[in-house]
Amino acid sequence: MAFETGRWTEVLDLTVHIMNLDPLNDAAVAKYILDLDRLNYADAYFYNAVANYKLNKIEAAEKSGLKAEHLDLVTRFPQLHLLLAEIFAQKGNYDRAISEIQTYLELVPQAKEAEQIREKLTKLEKLNSGVPTSEKPDPRRVSPL
After folding, report:
1. Crossing angle for the helix pair 8-19 and 42-54, nearest 10 degrees?
2. Cα–Cα dist 2/145, whole Å
3. Contact by Cβ (8 Å): 49, 80
4. CA 52 to CA 32: how far, in whole Å?
5. CA 109 → CA 8, 52, 65, 73, 104, distances in Å?
6. Structural domain spans, the chain
7. DSSP assignments along the chain, one per residue
8. Which residues, other chains included, contact 39 with Cβ-Cβ below 8 Å and sequence gap of 6+?
9. pLDDT tens digits in sequence order for the chain, 145 residues long
10. pTM of the full structure
């Protein structure tokens, strides 16, 4: 309910509470993991990422978004890739933004907004081609969490 009505501080509070129950919350997860816990914390991390993004807490949004991506093995939130693309684009990391949009389009090729997303992809590719190689972020240096 708080998510649908845009009460982002409330969403943030609720998701933080749920994330605190996650035994892997403080784990440095850099790869995909199989969590046999019956609760799926990917939901909480996804909604937390959205709330942080809407509250302009970009670093926290990125951290939660990447954690959600690693926990969401069945990809129940393809829109997570669009959120991560927005975050990476804001940070000037166009390579990763492009990759996230491509992943989204692979998962949901017939999305109703696919044409607008493809246009955004084209704009990012043009921006990325204008950035000298020496100024592009080294993807090996960007922390996964």
Report:
1. 150
2. 26
3. yes
4. 23
5. 29, 27, 21, 19, 8
6. 1-73, 78-145
7. -TTTTT-HHHHHHHHHHHHTT-TTTTS---S------SS-THHHHHHHHHHHHHTT-HHHHHHHHHHHHHH-TT-S-THHHHHHHHHHHHTT-HHHHHHHHHHHHHH-TT-TTHHHHHHHHHHHHHHHHTS-GGGS--TTTS---
8. 21, 22
9. 778 888 899 999 989 988 888 766 666 666 655 655 556 788 999 999 999 999 999 999 999 999 999 888 778 889 999 999 999 999 999 999 999 999 999 999 999 999 999 999 999 999 888 755 445 554 444 433 3
10. 0.77
Contacts of 82 (CB under 8 A, 6+ apart): 100, 101, 104, 117
- The whole-number pLDDT of residue 74 equals 79
